[in-house]
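Below is how a single chain appears once it has passed through the pipeline. First comes the sequence as given, then the structure the pipeline wrote out for it. We keep one example in the README because the format questions we get most often are answered faster by looking than by reading.
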Amino acid sequence: MATDPDIVPAPVTAVTCLEDRAQVERALTVELRAGVQRLRLGPVSALALDRTLHADVTAEHEASVLDARIVRAWTPREPLPTADDSELRRRAHALEEEQHTLEQRADRLRARLDLLGRLSTDLLREIGEGTGSGETDTLRWTEELDRVDAERDDHSEQLRATQAQLTTLATKLQDTWQAVLLSEQQPAELLGHIELTVRSATAGPARLRLSHLTACALWRPAYRAVLDGESLTLETDAIVWQRTGEDWSDVLLTLSTARSSSATEPPRLTEDRLTLTDRSPAERRTVEVELREQEITDLGPAPVLGLPGVDDGGQARVLHSPAPVTVPSDGRAHRVPLSSVTTPAHSEYACSPELSPLVTQLVRFDNPTGHALLAGPVDLVRGSGFTGRGTLGFTAPGAPVELAFGSHDDYRVLRHTEETRDTATLTQRTTVTRTVRLHLSRFSAPGTHTDQTVVLRERVPVSEVSAVDVRLRKEACSPVPDTVDDEGIARWDIALPPGGRRSITLVYELSASGKVSGL
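Resulting structure:
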């Protein structure tokens, strides 16, 4: 078997980014010899999954891949600085050498001080023994004690100065390493290479295609909506993060919502037993009702609790970048533009006082991108600039989209509710009358002379049982709602001049028979 000792570069040419990983593809041309030979390609990311490696040769060349594997090599960093190191790293190494020298000097000074301490102890013991035996060499004893004390003071001062230098040097060294971490990228110490065993019938160039999965890569959708009068520009972007260990330079990027890590086994079948129970006489005589909140939603995919990643409507979606992109392996967010379209939009000022007293500018339009809009954040921009950030839900192609471009401080809305309850003596029928009063005021800036239409919406309960009847008292409403839909949403289109005020009254009745309880 022929072995090629040289490493053939295999750059990344195409990437399919999934929710929590990426499929990397590499395409390159190599010169093959006739027979069986082994090629070494790379380097590649050490995070590549071995079991997902796939390699093949194009049909133009009579060759086949006998074996493909990923080998990894540990290359520890050299302890001493090299010519390729930066000035910051060289300075850090010089500071470490200086710190090591000062620590050795401090150790020698501590050893010297310990020796002088023992010498002073021996000298004092000698003076005591000599005095006891009648010796009186006072001059020599005084000179020796003075010499030892002077040396101890000198070495103690040198030790304090050395410790102060060590403290200052430790601070400089910490700042230098912090600067190295912020300004330089640590090289990967664990490198991977792809080893291919190829059998070729003839010698000549051959086109290889490699693919594998790798971790530490993901993407999420993001949007930017720019409102300009009656038109809206919607920009669709992809935020890509990757820390695979190798840069993606000028690659064809594909974005997918497929969940390759999710289990594909069908759910287990379990027994669901249904039992019948006779109602008691008291239950037959009464009807239990209660008021509940029901969210109004359009027909679409049911939300799945606890599902990570992007809401794609239950179907894998694929988006393509229109141009090659570059995503470095730095772990930071990189914005990749996908599409940008301009479409007519309808704008209105709306308020639902029961939920919020603010008047918000709502913009409605149909999805014009030709692809599904996945759930994600949207940056809102209008004439005054950036106004905030909202959330865009999953929207099918051509489906209506609604965005809120912030509230207006020119309006003030007050809401008051009253409720009366009356029970008929003979029929025991209970009637609940509710009155909702809304007060809308407009405070406009000087120089404003045009009227502004505000859409007010208020809820009326909807009964699901025949024993409870809900009726809108139009004769008591002032003014009568313009429309009341099947969901019980009453709507008024109120035109307000600058400095204008309007009051709206809504009255409705809930009538229930005597056997109804819980109202």
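The CA atoms of residues 455 and 493 lie 5 Å apart.

See the next section for the split statistics.
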